[in-house]
Design brief:
It contains 13 helices and 18 strands. It is of the alpha/beta class. The strands form four sheets. An eight-stranded mixed beta sheet has the order 3-6-2-1-9-11-12-10, sandwiched between helices. Strand 7 and strand 8 form a beta hairpin. Helix 6 packs parallel to helix 8. The longest helix is centred in the first third of the chain and has 16 residues. The mean pLDDT is 92.
Length: 416
């Protein structure tokens, strides 16, 4: 009998009826002979409610430590409720089950409350429970610091919990159940001809997750790739046996027989473009800007620099998340006297559209096809960035859907 980890997101456990459906899916895997660990998120909307309560409580008074640890104590409770309810439901169905919190396994995390990273999992007790036939229902999104405090892993952290547990107990696979039935070539809400992929490589999934696809959390894909844990993405809104062979397997590139040149088109509207004009064209200027942004924990993505019309000056454009845009401009302006640039402007009416595929490593002409497809639709490119398996462009936000459809057709993804 092999070990299997199943993970269910907030929409999958939004109410008792959906929790009962989850119970039926778990029971089917137990009946198939698997030793099952189930990782659950909070019920849909519950974490937002808990966060709002912590906001209402207010910050700590001057002279007292920040309340990040107590924030974690509050927001981690949503997963605890779900774990208990699912364990009760499974017992009602005749299955031996118990709930596990992060500290009971334990999942050891660092003390970066609200965005902690897993340092270690000590799986002996959990593995013994699974081998005894018990279904372990684990509260996702949470761990425990080395000094015994609850620490949460950040939004989407239950995906990371599930993959980490699968690696720790040497599970054959981590099945992540969500409100979609797999990974598509692009967002089906934009392109009705989007196709579900049967397999996708870790690297492609990592790029898609980081570029706007919301199917899996980025850190969970990084961990799956590092630990070589196969991950299957599938829908929780089916009954056992209704959709045999459903879902998308995220796996090592070598397990995919036919390498597609491009596997998907991703987009993100959460972008802002910062333009800095009249920078002195000399060493150290770029370092001054990006060091200041890094010190303020502002993540910079696409960067392009060009010569300005004035001799010995340059213009620079880079992108940040919309939430960081105002702060980024403020930081750059605060260095204007020191760096000697002329002006800085921000444009939040932009979007990033990307094509991703491991086949780019061995095929030429991807950029030509991409740029021609956009040109044919009159879409102007503002900034370009590339990696070994992706090309991203920044465009006017009004053209996002047009660009996605044009690229999807241009690379023949509707023919897969």
């Amino acid at each position: 009998m092999s070990r299997l980890v199943m993970k269910f997101g907030g929409t999958s456990v939004a109410d008792l009826e959906r929790i009962r459906r989850v119970g039926r899916l778990v029971a089917a895997e137990v009946q198939a002979g698997h030793k099952v660990a189930v990782v659950v998120s909070a019920m849909a909307g519950k974490t937002n409610e808990l966060v709002a309560w912590t906001d209402g409580a207010g910050p700590a008074a001057p002279g007292l430590p920040a309340s990040d640890d107590e924030y974690d104590a509050v927001v981690a409770s949503g997963e605890q409720v779900t774990a208990g309810l699912l364990a009760m439901t499974l017992r009602n169905m005749g299955l031996p089950a118990r709930s596990w919190l992060g500290w009971q396994i334990p999942i050891i995390a660092d003390d970066a409350h609200g965005r902690a990273r897993i340092d270690d999992i000590q799986p002996d007790k959990l593995a013994a429970a699974l081998d005894s036939g018990e279904v372990a229902v684990i509260a996702g999104f949470q761990g425990v610091t080395r000094d015994g405090r609850v620490a949460t892993l950040g939004r989407g952290g239950s995906d990371t919990s599930a993959v980490a547990i699968a690696a720790a107990v040497k599970a054959i696979r981590c099945d992540i159940y969500t409100d979609v039935d797999g990974v598509y070539t692009t967002d089906p809400r934009i392109e009705s001809k989007a196709r579900k992929l049967s397999k996708i490589s870790y690297e492609e999934m990592l790029e898609m997750a980081s570029l706007g696809a919301k199917v899996l959390q980025t850190r969970s894909v990084e961990l799956a790739m590092a630990q070589n844990v196969p991950v299957r993405v599938l829908s929780s809104f089916v009954e056992p046996g209704e959709a045999p062979g459903q879902g998308t397997i995220v796996c090592d590139e070598e397990e995919i027989m036919e390498k597609r040149i491009v596997s998907g088109v991703a987009y993100s509207r959460d972008e802002a473009k910062i333009s800095v004009f009249g920078l002195p064209d000399q060493p150290g200027v770029s370092s001054g800007i990006f060091s200041a942004l890094a010190d303020a924990n502002v993540n910079v993505d696409m960067i392009v620099q060009s010569h300005a019309r004035t001799a010995h000056t340059a213009n620079m454009e880079f992108t940040v998340g919309k939430r960081d845009a105002a702060r980024a401009v403020e930081i750059v302006r605060s260095h204007q006297d020191k760096l000697g640039f002329e002006d800085v402007q921000v444009n939040e009416d932009v979007a990033k559209v990307s094509v991703i595929g491991v086949g780019m490593r061995s095929h030429t002409g991807v950029a030509k096809t991409m740029f021609q497809a956009l040109a044919d639709k009159g879409v102007n490119i503002q900034v370009i960035s590339t990696s070994e398996i992706k090309i991203s462009v920044l465009i006017d936000a009004a053209y996002t859907e047009l660009a996605v459809r044009a690229l999807h057709a241009g690379f023949g993804l509707d023919q897969l």
